[in-house]
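Bumping my old thread because nobody answered last time. Still need a sequence for this structure:
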């Protein structure tokens, strides 16, 4: 697949309903994407990240069950996608589609061929704003998702599994000083490709020199 940098950055979508749950993803392809991810910047060049790639069917199902439980609680809350902009007629239809696709992924998470957990070695989580900490993981995780897109794979950034972080850590043997930051379902996607998403105009969110 040949794709320009601009197209890659503007068409890498959260793929949920279009993940191919029946097609095996070669581990070597996942390794390629992670090798690229390791080139991302990280605070103080600490490189404290770890990547847990889950292909075992039983373990994927167990993680999917935890994720589904967390989704159901989230869906019933005021923060769910369907309720987020319920008073904005211009965004209701879009949010309903997002909610439906998120529900589909929650139902099928355990069937996705590869689950990638991005983690950081953290002896203790700091109090207050943790942006500096997780800023050492997020660029690498996004690089992984971009590399996957360039290779015909779909991904989605998810974090609802963190409600069961301890249980998943025990399932996978993750040490106590390693914290999970993201769960990235990975599969070939169905259909041809993806387009740009509708976003608010830049000038609505841009502030120069002051708010």
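Sorry it took so long. Here it is:
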């Amino acid at each position: 697949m040949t794709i320009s940098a601009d197209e890659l950055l503007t068409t890498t979508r959260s793929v949920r309903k279009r993940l191919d749950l029946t097609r095996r993803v070669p581990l070597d392809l996942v390794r390629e994407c992670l090798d690229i991810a390791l080139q991302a910047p990280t605070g103080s060049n600490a490189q404290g990240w770890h990547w847990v790639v889950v292909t075992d069917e039983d373990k994927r199902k167990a993680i999917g069950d935890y994720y589904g439980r967390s989704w159901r609680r989230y869906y019933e809350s005021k923060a769910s996608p369907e309720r987020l902009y319920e008073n904005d007629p211009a965004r209701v239809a879009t949010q309903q589609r997002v909610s439906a696709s998120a529900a589909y992924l929650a139902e099928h998470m355990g069937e996705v061929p590869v689950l990638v957990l991005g983690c950081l070695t953290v002896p203790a989580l700091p109090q207050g704003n943790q942006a500096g900490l997780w800023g050492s993981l997020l660029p690498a995780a996004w690089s992984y998702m971009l590399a996957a897109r360039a290779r015909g794979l779909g991904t989605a950034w998810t974090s609802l599994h963190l409600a069961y972080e301890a249980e998943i850590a025990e399932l996978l043997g993750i040490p106590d000083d390693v914290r999970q930051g993201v769960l990235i379902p990975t599969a070939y996607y169905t259909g041809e490709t993806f387009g740009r998403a509708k976003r608010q105009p830049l000038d609505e969110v841009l502030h120069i020199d002051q708010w």
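The chain has a mean pLDDT of 92. Let me know if any region looks off to you.
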